[in-house]
Amino acid sequence: MSTEKKLKVKLVKGLMGTKQSHRATVRGLGLRRRNSSVELPDTPAVRGMLNRVSYLLQISDAA
Fold this sequence. Notes:
There is one protein chain. This protein is α+β, with helices and mostly antiparallel strands and 63 residues long. It has a single domain (6-61), classed as CATH 3.30.1390.20. It is built from 2 helices and 3 strands. It has helices spanning 20-28, 44-52, and strands at 6-11, 37-41, 57-61. A 3-stranded antiparallel beta sheet has the order 2-1-3, with no helix packed on it. The radius of gyration is 12 Å and the shape is globular. The model has no long low-confidence stretch (mean pLDDT 94).
């Protein structure tokens, strides 16, 4: 049982019309298509990526 905090991230908007760097960031997070979701560790690097593309995402704490 780890004490590492996790974040649940869901891609709620499509990537059409977004910057190429934002598309690359979404792919780097492990999200492929709209409504896909992943659980990610709560680290500064991940937080920075989420901050960059927050307008495309829904972010919540993983239970």
